[in-house]
Amino acid sequence: MASNTKELPVIALTPGDCTGIGPEQTVRILSDDRLADVARLVVVGDARVLEMGMAHAGVKLKVERIASPKAASRGSGAVQLVDLGNTDPAKFPLGKANAESGRLTGETLSRAIDFAKAGEVDAISFAPLNKRAMFDGGWKFPDEHKMFASLLGHTGYFSEMNVLDGQWMSRVTGHQSLREALDGINPKSIADAIELVDRMMRKAGVAKPRIAVAALNPHAGEGGLFGRDEIEMIRPTVEAAAKMGIACSGPYPADTVYIRAFAGEFDSVVAMYHDQGQIATKLSGFNRGVTVTAGLDTVFTTPSHGTAFDIAGKGVANTGAIESAVRLAAKLVSMKVLETSYAR
């Protein structure tokens, strides 16, 4: 939708699962125009959820209901809301996963995706959701990223990535059991992960990302003593990607590569499985990390933390990660616009 680099991108902001901290976070970042110079935010959700968020956060917003993002007014001083009228938060206890709330969270995101497909928004940033609640509510996907791909009709490779302080942390396998993940680690999946993070970082403005690839086994296999995956599969794949012009290296022992990355030696680490990367990243900056659904035509960003049921409704939720999510979405849209302009 943004036609040039001077026009702010339009980002659909959804308040996440109403049983968690999302509604409070959403109203806080809307209450003082802290992101006014970053994007034009249009909330897609239910007015009652925003009202509950205001009560929890102790702030008051002026809200203007609109039929769709294309009807959003500029400079009115009011939060632009596409009121779906689908979620009454009074029906759901705070701090507890609920299948019906999960269903409605998915429904709200689906409507935001419809607006993206229609070209009315440039990106979607969403407050925390609960994967189990969404699954139990009928969205039969292991995570929201696979749901997004399905709704967009995407058939190619895509992946969840975590961004923290300029570091892009990716992985070969995602939300699945460790036993299943091991079966999903192969030369093609490793190469896909390396190529995707290189492409995404270039889109984000990093000219030549320095990518470290983590080993699978302890001590990178200790020369074959703890497994030959590094010798027979990972290293040859990394070397092949490097010959294609990607600045990647490895495999490195997973228990030290993140220390090196956060010290500035690398711009990205490709983990072999979910927790290998997530533990290190979340320990480094739990309230700052952003999750990106990489590889889809639509930009999706969200805080890397969850619904924080233990503090829901207490008015103390940190907004650092959701602010960063909006900023990153705007940056990715801007780079996409530049990329399109250069291609003309």
How widely separated are the two ends?
16 Å
Helical stretch tally: 11
Question: What would the principal axes of the Cα set say about the shape?
Answer: globular
The percentage of residues in β strands lies in 15-25%
Overall average pLDDT: 93
Number of strands: 12
Major sheet summary line = 12 strands, mixed
Helical content (DSSP H or I, runs of 4+): 40-55%
Q: List the strand order in the largest sheet.
A: 3-4-2-1-5-12-11-6-7-10-8-9
Succession of helices and strands: EHEHEEHEHHEEHHEHEHEHEEH
pLDDT < 50 runs, ≥5 residues: 338-344
* Gyration radius, rounded: 20 Å
Q: Structural class of the helix and strand makeup?
A: alpha/beta
How would you describe this protein?
The protein is of the alpha/beta class and 344 residues long. 40% of the residues lie in helices and 17% in strands. It contains eleven helices and twelve strands. It has a twelve-stranded mixed β-sheet with strand order 3-4-2-1-5-12-11-6-7-10-8-9, with helices on both faces. Helix 7 packs across helix 8 (229-243). The longest helix has 24 residues, at 320-343. The radius of gyration is 20 Å and the shape is globular. The two termini are 16 Å apart. Residues 338-344 have low confidence and may be disordered.
